[in-house]
Amino acid sequence: MSALQDESGNDSQPARKSADRQLYARLGAIVLLVGLGYLVLRIVVPLWQPLVWAMLLGALLAPVNERVARRLGGRPRLASSITLAMTVVLFLLPLTIIAGAVAAQATQLLQEFDTRLPGLRDGSSLKLPSWPWIDAGIAWLQANAGVSIGDLRGWLVEGGRQVLQALVASGGSVVLGALGTVVNLALMLFVLFFLLRDGPRMARDLVILLPIEEQRRARLWRHLLDVTRAVFLGIGLTALVQGMLVGIGFRMAGLPSPLVFGVVATLSALIPVVGASLVWVPGVLYLVATGDYGHATFLAAWGVIAVGLADNLLRPILISGQASVPTLAVFIGVMGGLAAFGFIGLFVGPIVLGLLVALFRYEREERLGLHQPQP
Asked: For residue range 266-275, what is the model confidence (pLDDT) as tens digits?
């Protein structure tokens, strides 16, 4: 009996030692992985903005790069080079020209405001309409709150000056600040080339790590790509079109610095609900205050019809079907992303929350069996 116990104990000792070695090996691998992850994080954090821009543009340009590669007979290196050159010529060069024009118009805008400031303060350059409801409102404020028309005019002028100073200060850098320094721009283009060339293979290697079956993995990856492109296009392109329309409207209404306010309208159009009206409504009020009722009526109609239709028509087309993102998620993403990451957060925030919503929605549809099986 004792011999059997000794033999059993001798057999279990090598197995126990082997299990211990495997446990220690796994613990060592985990420690090594955590250490390497920490070092990689320290390396990547200073460069995160150009890397994120490269990933966003890579996801956006991937279909274009695939078409170019097919036309070239499946030559990914040449296709990526051509797509990158098109990005520089069609996107970065116009961006640089716009930045210079914004800086010049911003300076002129500040000078013109300073010239008109005395007349705005005392009301001599304003021609406020004598409408009964306006007169009644002013009389009620003066009787109940002790606020006179002069106080209101002073507050509005001072607030307008502060807003204008902020716009002028950022007008020259708001476009260039989207990409940062020349070094960051070069890094973004360098990374973008490799993402265009090797992105599909890298995506397959990454997705294969997900602990789900292959069909669900492929569907989920395609769904996330669709959401990323839809949010980026639906938010960014719609805001760009609205900003261009506001700039055109300001130009036709004879307002100064249409390019500056077009850029500002593009940024404000990223905010749901209010959008570009934060720019064109004050323009209408300024025209009314200066007695230019014809241009005020035109700009109001232009803002409601042209700018409003651009938002109501383009956004549903670009963000459609299962790629749609709730307005609340977009609003929180824009405001929170701007506060957390700066300009790039205007895009990163909605995309991150959009992907989160898409994951929940996708899992729900998978559980309910709403996805059609792939043939």
From this structure: 888 877 777 8
In the chain, count H helices and then E strands: 15, 0
Q: State residue 245's pLDDT score.
A: 93
Round to whole Å and give the CA distance between 293 and 358. 47
Distance (Å, rounded) from C-alpha 126 to C-alpha 143? 23
Q: Model confidence over 286-298: pLDDT tens digits?
A: 787 777 888 889 9
Query: Measured between alpha carbons, how far is 340 from 336 in angstroms, rounded to an integer?
Result: 6
Give the predicted TM-score (pTM) of the model. 0.67
Distance (Å, whole) CA 281 – CA 275: 11
Using CA atoms, how far apart are residues 67 and 315, in angstroms rounded to an integer? 25
SS3 306: helix
85 burial class (0-12, 13-18, 19+ CB within 10 angstroms)? exposed
At residue 116, the 3 state secondary structure works out as: helix
DSSP state of 173: T
Place of tokens 């890397």: 51
Report residue 160 as tokens: 């307008």
Residue 79 in tokens = 């296709």
Q: Which amino acid is at 118?
A: P
Q: Which one-letter amino acid corresponds to residue 20?
A: D
| Angle in degrees, CA 327, 277, 272, rounded to 5 | 10
User: Is the CB of residue 192 less than 8 Å from the CB of residue 54?
Assistant: yes
Helix/strand/coil (H/E/C) assignment for every residue in 74-107: CCHHHHHHHHHHHHHHHHHHHHHHHHHHHHHHHH
Share of the chain residues as helix, strand and coil, in percent rounded to the nearest 5: 85, 0, 15
SS3 category, 115: helix
| Cα separation, 165 vs 304, whole angstroms | 27
Decide if 344 contacts 178 (C-beta within 8 A).
yes
